[in-house]
Write a structure and sequence with these properties.
Elements: H1 4-10, E1 14-18, H2 25-36, E2 42-46, H3 47-59, H4 65-70, E3 75-81, H5 88-101, E4 106-111, H6 119-122
Parallel strand pairs: 1-4, 2-3, 3-4
Helix pairs in contact: 3-5
C-alpha cells in the first residue's frame, strides 16, 4: 500500500493554493513538495521565469523541448501564477504547457487570483 505522499504522485494529482499575498502559499507548497518528493524527481519554477524560458525556447525554434523534459518529472511546482504580467503569447505557451502536464505528472500551483480572474493570465476566457 502506498503512503499518502507516494499516492499523490502515483495518481498524478494536482493542487492549487489560492490566497492573498503573505498567506504562506509558497511555504505550504514547498512543504507539500518536500513531503511527496522523497526519492522522486521534481522541479520548482517561479512562473515568470518559466514563461521566459518558454518564450526563449520558441524564439530559438525549439518549442516543446522543455515540456518533453518536464514530462519526466514526478512533480512540478509553479509559483506565483498571476503575480506579475507577461505577454499574451507567453500566456498561451503557459496554458499549452499546463495542459500537457496536468494529466501526466503532479502539479502544485500557487496564486493570489480567484479562478474567475485566471483569464487575465492566459489571455482568453476559453483557455482557462
Amino acid at each position: 500500500m502506498n503512503s499518502p505522499p507516494a499516492g499523490f504522485l502515483d495518481a498524478k494529482r494536482n493542487a492549487i493554493f489560492i490566497g492573498g499575498t503573505g498567506t504562506g502559499k509558497t511555504h505550504l507548497c514547498i512543504a507539500v513538495a518536500s513531503a511527496v518528493i522523497r526519492a522522486r524527481v521534481g522541479r520548482f519554477f517561479n512562473l515568470v521565469d518559466l514563461v521566459n524560458q518558454l518564450e526563449q525556447e520558441k524564439a530559438a525554434g525549439r518549442s516543446g523541448r522543455l515540456s518533453e523534459k518536464l514530462l519526466r518529472y514526478d512533480l512540478i511546482v509553479i509559483d506565483e501564477l498571476g503575480y506579475l504580467p507577461f505577454s499574451q503569447p507567453g500566456g498561451q505557451l503557459l496554458f499549452h504547457l499546463i495542459s500537457k502536464l496536468y494529466e501526466n505528472t503532479s502539479l502544485l500551483i500557487t496564486t493570489n487570483l480567484a479562478f474567475a480572474d485566471w483569464p487575465q493570465v492566459f489571455g482568453e476566457p476559453m483557455t482557462s
